[in-house]
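During the second year of the project, the team shifted from modelling isolated chains to modelling whole assemblies. The rationale, set out in the original proposal, was that interfaces cannot be judged from single-chain predictions alone. As a representative example for this report, we include one of the complexes processed in the last quarter. Its constituent sequences, exactly as entered into the pipeline, are reproduced here:
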Amino acid sequence: KQEVTQIPAALSVPEGENLVLNCSFTDSAIYNLQWFRQDPGKGLTSLLLIQSSQREQTSGRLNASLDKSSGRSTLYIAASQPGDSATYLCAVTTAGGSEKLVFGKGTKLTVNP
Amino acid sequence: KAGVTQTPRYLIKTRGQQVTLSCSPISGHRSVSWYQQTPGQGLQFLFEYFSETQRNKGNFPGRFSGRQFSNSRSEMNVSTLELGDSALYLCASRSGSGKNIQYFGAGTRLSVL
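Output from the structure prediction step:
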């Protein structure tokens, strides 16, 4: 059974700092990995999707890497801003027919002005 | 292009009642998935529909059911509500061709009293 873990559960940083969020998964037979952002009381916004054959994806100040063999992904946020404050969720889709996403419990990020 | 629309946004029900939640996917998307989010369990997959057929079901009791209509709109029903069904219910849509990005709605917050 696929399990996804995110560390740390919460993180507080001053504005401008570069930071890394971690995600690990137990079964390396994944199809892809997605990073999402969730603001309080809101739905999920997809940030980056990495296919299993890719090593990284970049969008603006965000960079996500994937090491499938070790079951790890990191989300790097450069020059953090107060508007980046949210919960960041990592999710994997397993190989095979299922389209379901298996989520970690998220990292709650607070960027202080 | 309109995003994923979930109605209603908030619901208050009492134990034993039943509830129906609605999800309208992005135009042209044929796949709709449902997830339950609680503070304790995080995000858990309920089921996925594609072209009116249920393709996958998560590990939830039979009180949870769903369906998809010919216009891809989906409904989720929970019968005989229990206190533990209080959660944010999220719907996600994707085009259905390949395992691509899932787009989430804002969710329906269900409170069972």
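The first strand of chain B starts at residue 5 and ends at 7. Residues 83 and 112 of chain B are 5 Å apart (CA to CA).
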